[in-house]
Write a structure and sequence with these properties.
- By secondary structure, the protein is α+β, with helices and mostly antiparallel strands.
- It is built from seven helices and four strands.
- The chain has a four-stranded antiparallel β-sheet with strand order 1-2-4-3.
- α4 packs across α6 and α4 runs antiparallel to α7.
- The longest helix has 27 residues.
- This is Costars domain-containing protein.
- Pfam families: Costars.
- InterPro entries: Abra, Costars_dom, Costars_sf.
Length: about 190
């Protein structure tokens, strides 16, 4: 074997070695990290070169990247909140009194009674009441209800429980269908 062939064989052995592939993978990861740090406002790398301006449309502003773990967690949390709102409305329906004889589906319960019943189920009653009012499932006077001070304030269901259940289960189903089966960490997305 000639010296040139021997050197090429040794070079091929070095290029194809497991160590060289690991070094190449490390270099590739390091380069992608350097590039991601240029858009990170908390990184020192952007201070030396000047940070590239992030382009976000109005629809994307304040929302997580599609397919990210953040988006996945947010959607899972929404499913849970819808379930808790449904449970709250069911408690009002079961333990509340009909508002009128003409419309027995519309129920009312006083906040003090609801507080005593619901605190055994969930400790986030006031927040759920505000959220359910925002979705127009319940109605009560005032901005926020407080224990003892507002015990006499009536809380009304604004829709029949079957309609509320259909709406909330529909929203949960819609979110479940939109969940990514394989969410990715945000920093791994392009």
């Amino acid at each position: 074997m000639t010296d040139v062939a021997h050197e090429l064989g040794a070079l091929r052995l070095i290029v194809d070695s497991p160590l060289s592939s690991k070094v190449a993978l490390f270099n590739q990861t390091a380069q992608s990290h350097r590039e991601s740090q240029l858009t990170n406002p908390f990184s020192d790398a952007q201070a030396t070169r000047g940070m590239a301006r992030l382009q976000i449309s109005k629809e994307e502003y304040g929302k997580p990247k599609a397919g990210s773990l953040t988006e996945y967690r947010g959607k899972k949390a929404n499913i849970q909140v819808y379930q808790e709102m449904l449970e709250l409305c069911q408690v009002i329906d079961v333990d509340g009194q009909p508002v009128s004889k003409k419309n027995p589906d519309m129920k009312m319960i006083y906040f003090g009674e609801l507080f005593n019943i619901y605190t055994h189920i969930n400790d986030k009653l006031v927040g759920l009441l505000l959220r359910a009012r925002k979705h127009e499932f319940i109605q009560f006077e005032g901005e926020c209800l407080f224990q003892r001070r507002d015990d006499h304030v009536p809380v009304y269901l604004t829709k029949p429980i079957t309609q509320i259940r259909d709406i909330l289960v529909g929203k949960q189903t819609e979110i479940r269908r939109s969940l990514s089966p394989n969410p990715q960490p945000t920093n791994m997305l392009p």
